[in-house]
Amino acid sequence: MTRTITVGAAQLGPIQKAEDRVSVVNRLLALMEKAHARGCQLIVFPELALTTFFPRYYMEDQAEVDEWFETSIPSNSTQPLFDAAQRYGMGFHLGYAEKVKEEGITHRYNTAILVEQSGNVVGKYRKIHLPGHVEFDSDRAFQHLEKRYFEIGNLGFPVWKMFDGLFGMCICNDRRWPETFRVMGLQGVEMVVLGYNTPTVNSQSDEAPHVRAFHNLLSMQAGAYQNSTWVIGVAKAGNEDGHELMGGSAIIAPSGEVAAQCVTLEDELAVADCNLDQCHFGKQTVFDFARHRRIEHYGLITEQTGVVLPDMEH
Ligand code: CDT
User: Fold this and answer.
1) What's the total number of domains in the chain?
2) What DSSP element (H or E) covers 269?
3) pTM of this prediction?
């Protein structure tokens, strides 16, 4: 029996600052309806899918910041997503800004959840590789203040059993780090789902948009191939109040090949039949970790973060 899941990469076009949650959720529901019509059992939405990419705005008033956060999921405005999941028998992945009180202390995370076909939340991930900066940076063409608004995620990179397979999550900038995929690969992951909000231009250089689009695919294809896993990467794309975000949402096979891809910068669904059994070949051959990894030579990866130059005196 094969373990084939029909997956929809549900790219979102821009969400303007003024667009409210109800309107966004209606767009997500329209994509779920489309996905159902195309036989999807899982739909993957982007990072911070309920709002504009607010970390581009510098804010000092915490009450203003908190407007962008969810204090519970499901909530009144997001419950229809869970109802649709149940109605269609369709799992979903959703990114959102999470404000939570734990042991009396308030925390804010860039979070994503994995919801199974029954509408139950099976997993939660909190973004670990937060890009950007804390204070206003006048040297940048625009701000990227994730380090100001979010804490570093505290849940690690676990995997969860779903659809008779092993699923993992990461968020946007996490995809650029091979460690992200390898930690999940070491737990046998078979499908990594992730969302991204990636500016089309670099705020600090004239890096060409096509190079940035290349880096997006390069990172996700490498993560897929080197861990022999499916990767579903989904963008929020297009022009949000004058700020361009790249598209290119893709479903990537364990071979590293692109199986389906979005071609617009709008709400769009790319669909592929993903056979989890295709992960076996790579996991049993070139990336059979137990046989081929040489951890005695990898110590530096967990011993240090930054570069330490070798002593070149002799
Ligand atoms: N959302 C997010 O993580 N975006 C980053 C932009 C990097 S530039 C500060 C990304 O890695 O795509």
Assistant:
1) 1
2) strand 268-275
3) 0.98
